[in-house]
Amino acid sequence: MVIHEYAGIVTELEDHDCPHCGRAMEPWLAPPETGWGVILICNNNNCPFYLGSEENIEHKRDDSHLGCRYALDPGNGYKPVNVLAVCPH
Predict the structure, then answer these.
(1) Using CA atoms, how far apart are residues 4 and 26, in angstroms rounded to an integer?
(2) Number of domains into which the chain is organized
(3) Which of 16, 41, 71, 85 is deepest in the core (most CB within 10 A)?
(4) Range from 8-12, 18-22, 83-87 that averages highest in pLDDT
(5) Residue 27 lies in a domain
(6) Highest taxon of the source (predicted)?
(7) Contact 48/68 with Cβ under 8 angstroms?
């Protein structure tokens, strides 16, 4: 069980490992406008999903370094979601 506490609010989440790299996923409080709340995210900068995601975003500028991190939404039965992130170069 993963425990996340922010502003006195405690959220308990199931343990999950990233299916792409095997690392334990970490809780992250998403921005309010996403409607997600606390999600689980893979923060491994060497995750194959993250490293390969830069080429998978359609209609982005060629000079953009956006990619995606693998995440799970507990509020939706832990279904996968993509979280936009800046990919290193």
Answers:
(1) 9
(2) 1
(3) 71
(4) 18-22
(5) yes
(6) Bacteria
(7) no
- Rounded CA gap, 37 and 9, in Å? 11
Q: In 1-89, where does DSSP find H-type helix?
A: 48-52
Q: pTM here?
A: 0.79
Q: Say what the pLDDT of residue 66 is.
A: 73
Contacts of 40 (CB under 8 A, 6+ apart): 2, 13, 16, 25, 26, 27, 28, 71, 72, 74, 78
Tell me if 22 is assigned to some domain.
Answer: yes
Q: Name the residue range of residue 42's domain.
A: 16-86
What distance separates the 2 farthest-apart alpha carbons in the chain? 42
Tell me how far apart the alpha carbons of residues 48 and 44 are, in angstroms, rounded to a whole number: 9
